[in-house]
Amino acid sequence: MKAKVLLSLILLCGGLAAPQARADDAAPATPAVPPACELPSYLLTSESQLPKVAEAVKSGKPLEILVIGSRSTTIPASEDASYPARMQAILKDKLPPSEAVHVSVEIQSKKTAEEAATTFVKLMEAKRPTLVIWQTGTVDAIRAIDPDDFRGAVTEGVAALQNAGADVVLMNLQYSPRTETMISVPPYLDNMRVVAQEHDIPLFDRFAIMRQWNDQGQFDLFSPSRGPELAKQVHDCLGRALAQFVFDAAHLGPAQQQN
Amino acid sequence: MTIADQVTGSTIAGTAKPAEPRAAAITLPAIGERELRLDLFRGLALWLIFIDHLPTSLLTWFTIRNYGFSDATEIFIFISGYTAAFVYCRAMLEGGVVIATARILRRVWQIYVAHVFLFTIFLAEISYVATRFENPLYTEEMGIMDFLKQPDVTIVQALLLRFRPVNMDVLPLYIVLMLALPVILWSMRWKPDVTLGLSVVLYAVTWEYDLYFSAYPNGFWAFNPLAWQLLFVFGAWCALGGARRMSRILASPVTMWISIAYIVAAFYVTLTWYLPQLSHLMPKRLEQWMYPIDKTDLDVLRFTHFLALAALTVRFLPRDWPGLKSQWLRPLILCGQHSLEIFCLGVFLAFAGHFILAEVSGGAAMHALISLSGILIMWGVAWVISWYKRVADKSGAKTKNAVGNADLAGGG
């Protein structure tokens, strides 16, 4: 019952927020987050921390971020609108101008977590990032890889990234309502959560975030549209959410900004 | 854990004490005595499975998986084991092992055909989506359509039960369990408690050595029959006298309080999944021990959660509760009485519901409408089947004796 009441409340709030959202569109961009991207704060917070990112910003070293992902990390033919690029722009805004932020992307197309993890040692030697955001799980879910094997592969991958001296954020699958009857997602979400817990690293819950947007009506993820507009908007919001998430997990509060 | 101890404890007690001194190893309730509670809860499980197969909505919050570890699948498999054992053991006693086995195989064939039928519908749906849906946000997820490129392999694998799309896992599990039923029953007639013990051993061995059924293109069956057989065999064991021998334990207040405590604890844990704000109240040690709660291999936590629910149900819902005959529960009971047909219908309706939500509109009102009409359709079809069977039985009774009760023989 509690859960139901809560859900009704959320829906109600969503209903109230939606008309406001449209009214605000015209207003000058004082609030940092566009209404379409709004999320409850629990989806953007993590108990785990990013000490190396905090350290780098504190000492004024450049912040090198590496996003390792699969095809859902990009939008075909619109790289600049994909979430890594958006995150870089937002982080630059949020951090003091003196802080250099650079985001690079490594796409491991059609590779399972296990296949991707084999490349990590070399990749880390070449890039030396402060923070790695590893987005994985989709290919494993499509190929129905054994969830235990998947967990093992993610564990090894995270360990390799950490050994190379980087902070790690895990990012899980997209919420994709059209393929819900075809791809079994829950085991992969669960196992990524377990690995994140075991290693005490932040998990960016892309699945829950996108589902929140769809349920609230901020985005219609059922849309069959072939144009890139929806993808661009969703990636913009994901980039913002991710920047906020990293910012909070590294405790880069307003105090840091003034330094 | 505690509940499992209770139950295994009871089996040991059952073997040790000569409760029924004469060799009557198994006992069946008198003929014609229909256990409406089974129909009721199987009907409920079918409705819940249907709702769980639809995208999340307000109604989803009424399904039991949100309030504890186990879900409708446990209810369905347990009751299927119960009814199947009940019906076919009688057939075995009356007609012999060969006849009973033949009847079971005929049932397996029906379930297999139903599965292939559902697969065809799935194929139609996925082909449609593959050609119509090209949102650039989801280019990666569309990789699932790759199997359409080699139908020669995929369709053959589907016929071999190795390629099973999402939401089509229950029937293959059921087929395997029913295939094993002749052996289970044969062994149950010999020594029920030993059979249950062997089932527990198989379950433990499956966990220890990580045994599984492989699937195509890779991976394994989403419901591992080697683990889920425990619930099925336990159902059969209960049907063949085990439930009666356990009645003392079931009636004890200790069992009741343990069950309640366990269900409340499970509810609290589930709550932390939906209200992550609460999760910091969960001890990390406990989380690490507990997660992941594995559905594929029927995690002990799920099994015990089901046992706790069952214990409370049996206690607070007596067999002769007058409400079972009320008009209000009639739709559920009717659906439970034709479970194979209604199960398949439910899977189909879930596909259709997805389709409508995707193609027409995804609003909450539409969602509620689809869930509601789905349930009404299930009820309506169950009613028609009942009506047809009644009419057919009436005209058939003149020429031949009814061989067993066809409704009960449903067994799932």
Characterization of the model:
The complex is a heterodimer of chains A (259) and B (412). Chain A is an alpha/beta fold and 259 residues long. Chain A contains eleven helices and five strands. Chain A has a five-stranded parallel sheet, sandwiched between helices. In chain A, strand 1, helix 3 (83-94) and strand 2 form a beta-alpha-beta unit. In chain A, helix 3 crosses helix 10 and helix 7 (147-163) runs parallel beside helix 8. Residues 1-31 of chain A have low confidence and may be disordered. Chain B has 412 residues and is an all-alpha fold. Helix content of chain B is 68%, strand content 0%. Chain B is globular and about 60 Å long. At the A-B interface, helix 1, helix 6, helix 7, helix 8 and helix 9 of A face helix 4, helix 11 and helix 14 of B.
End-to-end distance of chain A: 48 Å
User: What spatial form of chain B do the alpha-carbon principal axes imply?
Assistant: globular
Low-confidence stretches of chain A: 1-31
Q: Helicity of chain A, in percent?
A: 40-55%
Q: What is the CATH topology classification name of chain A? A: Rossmann fold
Residue windows where pLDDT falls under 50 for at least 5 positions of chain B: 1-25, 401-412
Structural class of chain B: mainly alpha
Q: Beta-sheet strand percentage of chain A? A: 5-15%
The helix/strand order of chain B is HHHHHHHHHHHHHHHH
| Oligomer class | heterodimer
Order of helices and strands of chain A: HHEHEHHEHHEHEHHH
Total number of strands of chain A: 5
Shape of chain A: globular
* Mean of all residue-level pLDDT scores of chain A: 83
State the end-to-end distance of chain B: 28 Å
Query: Could you tell me the radius of gyration of chain B in angstroms?
Result: 22 Å
Biggest sheet of chain A, strands in spatial order? 2-1-3-4-5
The biggest sheet of chain A, with number of strands, parallel, antiparallel or mixed sense and barrel status, is:
5 strands, parallel
DSSP helical segment count of chain A = 11
**What is the class of chain A in the CATH system?**
Alpha Beta
Q: Calculate Rg of chain A over CA atoms.
A: 18 Å
